[in-house]
Amino acid sequence: MNGAKQPDGFGTALPAGFSTPYLVQQLAPGQDPKRVVLAGAKPWPQRANAYVAMICLADTPEDAADAQQYARGQCESFDSSDSENRQVWFGVFDATGGGAPRLVARTETPVDTQTDWSDTDLDLPEALDAKDANDANDANDANDAKLAMPASWKRFDLAPYQIKSGEYAFGVRAGWSEGYAGGGGYFEALYLFRIDGKALRVVFARPMTFDKLIAGDWHKDGTRDHDEYEASNSLVILPGATDGFHDIQLRQQGGKWRRTFKWSSTAQMYR
Predict the structure, then answer these.
(1) Distance between alpha carbon 50 and the CA centroid of its chain, in Å?
(2) Which of 24, 95, 135, 182 sees the fewest Cβ atoms within 10 Å?
(3) pTM recorded for the entire structure
(4) Residue 1 pLDDT > 50, yes or no?
(5) What is the dihedral of CA 64, 68, 73, 76, to 10 degrees?
(6) Distance CA 192, CA 270 (A)
(7) How far is the C-alpha of 158 from the C-alpha of 169, rounded, in Å?
(8) At CA 148, angle to CA 163 and CA 256, rounded to 5?
(9) What is the mean pLDDT of residues 7-22?
């Protein structure tokens, strides 16, 4: 890190009309504002006068105070246990005219959709990879082993994800970090959210990129070899459609791997 100011991925410098207590009231009614680790809102270019917003809560006000002291501006767990994962809510607001922004849709509970790491070209985080290997003899456990909640929520991804005619989803990037002896790894997933009446629903949650720095041999001068491994995918909206929703495809950047996802009317998401 060079001390440079990091991008405000969630819009924590709140736009006019928004405040942290207001976002808690609208997105997670009944929750204690003292549990807030991070709150943000950003204009959504694909919808006129619209904003996407989020709040990230710790389990307790004390945990939130620790996060403000040691990891300010980050919606990130201190460890990888499920009990420590931050609770996040997302919403869409309309800011037409004066007055407070009007809530259009929100996640009805903290986001609990896990990233699906099955059928990917990317390396898995070590903990997930180890669990996958341990459960490989049990088909049901092996499938579950490739599902994981993110350890951190990083930023809005407001690319024009037009999932059907006249309708866009917005994205959120989430991630995992892990340390090795003399190196480390970072993994990132894409979540897509769709407005469904007054509800905001996750319709896609898949890994998108990884980057590993692995330490190698030591040299007599005290330096050490390092090998870097990385890969990333891009999401492409296809012209074909299923039940009115465009098919979407992950494509390996610089490679040949492809994976197409189609809308499932039963699951109400891409499969």
Answers:
(1) 20
(2) 182
(3) 0.91
(4) no
(5) -50
(6) 10
(7) 9
(8) 55
(9) 96
Predicted confidence (pLDDT) per residue in 173-217, tens digit: 999 999 887 788 999 999 999 999 999 999 999 999 999 988 777
Mean pLDDT rounded to a whole number for the chain: 90
Quote the DSSP letter at residue 113.
Answer: P
- Looking at per-residue pLDDT, the higher value among 33 and 84 belongs to 33
The structure tokens listed for 206 are 């898949």
- Cα 5–chain centre separation: 21
Whether residue 248 contacts residue 163, with contact meaning beta carbons closer than 8 Å, is answered with yes
CB atoms within 10 A of CB 120: 21
Candidates 190, 139, 138, 148; CA nearest to 169 is 190
Residue with tokens 């420590």: 84
Which whole number is the average pLDDT over 1-30?
88
pLDDT by residue (tens digit) across 125-179? 988 876 665 655 555 555 566 999 999 999 999 999 999 999 999 999 999 999 8
Give the N- to C-terminal CA distance of the chain in Å, as an integer: 38
Residue 151 in tokens: 């350890």
pLDDT at site 222: 74
**What does 39-95 look like in DSSP terms, one character per residue?**
EEEEE-TTSTTEEEEEEEE-SSHHHHHHHHHHSTT-EE-SSSSGGGPPEEEEEEEE-
